[in-house]
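FAQ
Q: What does a multi-component entry look like?
A: The components come first, one per line:
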Amino acid sequence: MQVYLDNAATTKMSRAAIDAMLPYLDGVYGNPSALHSMGQRAKEALEEARQTVAECLGARPEEIYFTSGGSEADNQAILSAGAMGARKGKKHIITTAFEHHAVLHTLKKMEKDGFEVTYLPVGLTGNITAEQVREAIREDTCLVTTMTANNEIGSVLPIAEIGAVCREKKVLFHTDAVQAVGHIEMNVAAMNIDMLSLSAHKFHGPKGVGVLYARRGVALTNLIEGGAQERGRRAGTENVAGIAGLAAALKEATQHLSENMPKVAALRDKLIKGLSAIPHSVLNGDKEHRLPGNVHFCFEGIEGESLLLLLDEFGVEASSGSACTSGSLDPSHVLLAIGHPHEIAHGSLRLTLSEYTTEEEIDYALSAIPQVVERLRGMSPIWRDKVNGRKPILLQ
Amino acid sequence: MALYSEKVMDHFRNPRNVGVLEDANGVGEVGNAKCGDIMKIYLKVTDGIIADVKFETFGCGSAIASSSMATEMIKGKPLSEALELTNKAVAEALDGLPAHKMHCSVLAEEAIKRAILDYYKNAGIPYDEETFREVECCHEGE
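Then the predicted structure of the entire assembly, as tokens:
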């Protein structure tokens, strides 16, 4: 049995998304900038997609900029806010300690250019409060950028409250909503969001296409020069098929949100309950404010990569924040940010569901995972030392 | 191409010599939990020959496969031969390891050296300090 539980990494494309793309892969190949009929048909598809995305997010079509994905949107949003701030002498940015690297690495680069960044601690729960944001805002703050939901541990941040604080304090607010859009309710107007990044392949759309929403009045800095596409803010011939697929996937996800959320969350809770029975393990992330599809555990005494490889032998496809899976020496910054020592962070497992996940699949995963954990613990010298009382057990 | 060779996956799926030797007369442990890998080698040495060997490993797939392969390569061999086992030989026997996983084979070599050193110390056998210089100073536990 093959069980795909890595939906936070990417998702299976929906039939609706594929069908929306096909005409622009096989037939209507015109350039949307061309004047002839086929070009204009592509242009129509593009603008229709923009309209759809705007409706799904509570935005206006002219506030939607298509990009190559979430990372590009994050980069552009943050660099733009920085440039706007710098013109007024404001070079302070507020973010959280557990952002995606698309945000963190952009901010690191800006720190070298004289920006000062406050990284809000996310505590053991792995979340922040709007109050933390309020307290961190200064006279020279030009941007607050916090993710809507964490890609590893699934915590959902109080975006509406943070947005309200930012609006009150007249500070630009960007949110990396890559993990959230299509999975929880998002409305940029109601949540006072000035900029938002999203990526199509996280909600059953195609890879390589995303959106930067930027509220009217936000002056975007171009990352790519060379053409008048996207109102002059993102040069390059548009990925028409990808954009059509994105819009179709987002429309479908938005329409089915109210039925999918409880359905996926019920399976998530079953998985969490079952895995909690494994001794010396811990559920990471906010238990209450959590993505419907996210399950994230640390198991003491084992290492994440071997856990993933063995699970793959069982047909269970998952992910981990362990160092060995990333090629770096340090485990995930997210797990360190919620206070785990390296040793525990190495033994992490992320299982992410989608509306295509079935109860049968969850039952199968629940039968495989405890076996794999037990097998790896059985050959772990550190686990033996812990069981024999020679080393302390950290997860009670 | 897959991350690991078929050989690595075979030794990872079906590790040889995994476990503890209750009557070991030489034990070596290297690595630390902070870095995400610990390797422990148990030796039963009789008349200068490695009569039996077992390992325990906390770590990634290539760490488990390297331990398994290394124990296979020294089982039944005289200590002098086991001391000559290099990490490169372990990696080659596994049909190669990805560049960022080569340190796993280094751990296997060092765990074996440390276990042999432990045996020499336990048995009161004089040894050439130069051979063990590196394992004596590096990779102290946490």
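Q: Is there any commentary attached?
A: Sometimes. For this entry: The radius of gyration of chain A is 22 Å.
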